[in-house]
Each structure stands twice: as structure tokens, then as C-alpha cells.
Specification:
By secondary structure, the chain is mostly helical. 58% of the residues lie in helices and 6% in strands.
């Protein structure tokens, strides 16, 4: 039996013509999936992962090319129809993503949308430029961590560059290090956040990419993690990279949500779309992954693994430097604001990145590739705002490990966390008043 399309259905988003497994899901969810899949026709890679009914994707792929303006209209229509038969939490999740997709469609259609408004629509956060005094303070702390008495810009840049050179992983040892850390982290994760027996991550080395690492979730508890060989890998950052992309970061989250949410009929979780609130949540989760599974003092753990590989890693020094450079978290978001909100030229922004991140010219140029990519230009905010929002939320938890487990397992969005933070603030205020 064929189904009848809704009177206002967009003909560029195909309607089902024969029964399929996914069509047992809520019709509103199917329309959301169909809409999301259509964006991959506008920009390949917009659908970061899809593990749902393959026939639904085939329908979208074989349909006429979608028109961005019609996709924006369809997103508004689906948003207006919520909650329908969905419960409040699922309707809120889908609604936040429909607002993001509506903005993306308008951007594809050529609408002029301010950068701050674009970030707000995509990720449900408001961004502002940081106070440069924060960066000056971070540089002072970095000079102390590097044990240099001369805190002039040139001295700091030279000392930091020397530290980075000493922290480099020899290219021929990167594969050994990746295998060692992925194995050690996988064992910890499988004890703390059990995974299906058939889950697996395959690592590959790639070049000519604007990012340092990327998780391609393939479904059925499998991921392919690509590591960019154009960028030098460092002992102080590789453990975090593996935790971020695999255990207990992106791969672990995908596996847990596929098993627990998609398995329970929450088919909206079978698609992962770029420039949506789930990206901010996922990147914030992944940036907290190493601390969550090993602890904030993970350096001594990493030092032992490197020692087994015959590599010398100064954990104490690396951790002190890492805490100092944590004050520079917002530099790249400020650079994005300079580019897209204040319309500074590339050379000015590259100089800003070099000044505050103490980055060599080629590294600043690599960062600009990411910040100027049409698909990825706003994405830097997922790391900045995602880390900060989740950090505040995790800090309020009585059991941080259990709270991290909620991030892995539940369909939380930024508004969910802000609401809980607001409740926590209200409870704390009432408690202070009673005392």
C-alpha cells in the first residue's frame, strides 16, 4: 500500500512509496529524517551519520534535487506541527534541530544571516568575544609553567615552540601510540559504560583535511576514525584525541545511543546532522571524555603508557602547561567572530591566532581553513560553548561519572542542561536562605 503525502509536503523531499522498517516509526520522526537526509544532497557530509532504514535514504537520493528555500519552509511546517504524538522530551529535541535545519536551509538559499544569529540557530547558544585580559593572564601562567623568567612575547613564543618540539611523537611511532591508547581506553570504557561485544573502531591516516581527527560512525557499533597526518601529533594531546574520537567520546556515544535509544524506537537518534544542537553536545562530551574516564590527573597514567613504548613524557610539566593554555579556549571562537561578524581579513585573523595561541604561521593557516569552510565555519563554537556548558553542568553533579553516562545515553540538548542548571541554582539559593 502506498502512503499519501501531506498536502503541504515538499516534492523535493520524497515520500515513501512502499512499506519499510523505518515507516513503523512515528510519521513526524520519519519526516524529520527525510528532511535531514535531503541536506546531504545540498552538501555532502552534512549528514555526519545515518543508521536508519536504508530505503528511506535511497528515496531521498533518487528524488529531484532539493531546493533550499523549500527545505526551510518544510522545517518550519514540521516545527509548527510539534509535539503531535511525541512526548515532550522527544518533541523538544526534534524542535531544536528543526530550527537549526531551517537556518541551514536559508543559508544554502543565500539569505544573509548574521554570524551570531547563525550560531544561535545552529547550536542554541549565544556567543560574545572574550576579554583579551584573559589571554594575557593565560600567557603569564604559561610562562610560569614553562619556567621562564622572561615573559616577553618573543621569549614566550620561543619557549613554547621548544616545548612543542620536545612533545612531538615521531611520525613512525604514531601508529603504535594510537593502538596503545585506544586499547587502554577501550578497556576502561567497557568496564564503566558497557558496549556491545561487536563494537569496533578502525583507525586510518588521512591528509588534506581541515581538522585533526574525525569519527565516521558506520552503524552497527562500528566507527572509522581518521587522523590527519598533515598535523604533527603530540604526546600531550594524543590521549585526548583518542578519547575524543573513540573511547569514551564519539564512538562510545554513538554506540550507546544506537543501542539504548534507537533500539527503544527513538528513530530521530539514527541521524546525526552537522550544525545542530546535537553537535554541540557531542563535542562538549568528547572534550570531557579523557577526564571522565581517567580523571583530571590523567598525565601520570599517560606517562606510564608512553614509558612502555620507550617514549619519555613529562606528565607534570604537560599538565601544568595544559592548565595554562586552557585559558586560551575561546581564542578560535573570537577569530571566527573577527572573520564573520566584524569582517576582518584573513591576514589580521591569522596574526590574532599567532599572537594568542603562539601558533606558527602554517598552523594558523590550517586553523583558517576550518574557520572559512562554508560547512564548518560556525562549528568552532561547539568546542568552546559545548565544553563550557557541559563543564558547568558536570560540576554540579554529585557523581560526575554518572552524569557523564547521562550524556552518553540520553537525548540531552543545551536547553536541557540550562534548565537543570537553573533548577540547581534555585535549589542552592533556597538552601542558602534556609541556613
Amino acid at each position: 500500500m502506498s502512503s499519501v503525502p501531506a498536502p503541504d509536503a515538499d516534492p523535493s523531499v520524497p515520500t515513501p512509496t512502499e512499506p519499510a522498517a523505518a515507516r513503523a516509526a512515528d510519521p513526524q520522526v520519519i519526516e524529520y529524517l527525510r528532511l535531514g537526509l535531503a541536506f546531504d544532497r545540498l552538501e555532502r557530509g552534512f549528514v555526519d551519520a545515518y543508521t536508519g532504514d536504508p530505503s528511506l535514504r535511497a528515496e531521498v537520493e533518487s528524488a529531484p534535487a532539493p531546493e533550499p528555500a523549500r527545505l526551510a519552509e518544510r522545517a518550519r511546517t514540521l516545527l509548527a506541527e510539534l509535539p503531535g504524538t511525541l512526548d515532550a522530551a522527544r518533541a523538544e529535541f526534534i524542535g531544536s534541530h528543526l530550527r537549526a535545519l531551517e537556518c541551514s536551509a536559508r543559508k544554502f538559499a543565500g539569505d544573509d544571516i548574521g554570524f551570531v544569529d547563525e550560531v544561535r540557530a545552529y547550536f542554541d547558544v549565544d556567543i560574545t568575544a572574550a576579554d583579551p585580559e584573559r589571554y594575557r593572564q593565560a600567557h603569564t601562567e604559561l610562562a610560569d609553567a614553562l619556567d621562564i623568567p622572561d615573559t616577553t612575547a618573543d621569549a614566550l613564543r620561543d619557549a613554547y615552540a621548544a616545548h612543542r618540539r620536545s612533545d612531538e611523537i615521531p611520525p613512525e611511532r604514531v601508529d603504535d601510540c594510537v593502538r596503545a591508547f585506544s586499547g587502554a581506553l577501550r578497556e576502561r570504557v567497557r568496564n564503566a559504560y558497557p558496549l556491545p561485544d561487536n563494537e569496533i573502531v578502525e583507525f586510518e591516516v588521512v591528509t588534506d583535511k581541515p581538522w585533526s581527527g574525525f569519527n565516521y560512525y558506520l552503524g552497527n557499533y562500528r566507527s572509522r576514525v581518521a587522523i590527519n597526518a598533515d598535523l604533527t601529533q603530540y604526546m600531550s594531546s594524543l590521549p585526548s584525541l583518542i578519547a575524543h574520537e573513540a573511547y569514551p567520546g564519539h564512538h562510545t556515544e554513538h554506540c550507546r545511543k544506537e543501542q539504548l535509544l534507537v533500539g527503544a524506537g527513538h528513530d530521530e537518534q539514527s541521524i546525526f546532522l552537522v550544525n545542530t544542537p546535537q553537535c554541540l553536545m557531542a563535542e562538549g562530551l568528547a572534550d570531557h571524555a579523557l577526564d571522565a574516564i581517567v580523571g583530571k590527573d590523567w598525565g601520570s597514567w599517560a606517562q606510564e603508557i608512553y614509558a612502555d613504548l620507550g617514549l619519555r613524557f613529562d606528565a607534570d610539566r604537560a599538565m601544568r602547561i595544559g592548565r595554562a593554555t586552557g585559558g586560551l579556549l575561546t581564542v578560535r571562537q573570537d577569530a571566527a567572530l573577527m572573520l564573520h561578524d566584524r569582517h576582518a581579513d584573513n591576514d589580521t585573523v591569522a596574526a590574532f591566532l599567532q599572537q594568542w595561541l603562539l601558533a606558527p604561521r602554517e598552523r594558523a593557516t590550517q586553523m583558517l581553513r576550518f574557520l572559512t569552510s562554508p560547512l564548518w565555519r560556525a562549528y568552532i563554537s561547539t568546542y568552546v560553548e559545548g565544553y563550557q556548558l557541559l563543564d558547568r553542568w558536570l560540576d554540579t553533579a554529585a557523581d560526575r561519572a554518572a552524569a557523564f553516562g547521562r550524556l552518553l545515553d540520553e537525548p540531552l540538548i543545551p536547553e536541557s542542561l540550562r534548565r537543570e542548571l537553573g533548577d540547581q541554582s534555585a535549589r542552592s539559593l533556597r538552601s542558602r536562605r534556609r541556613s
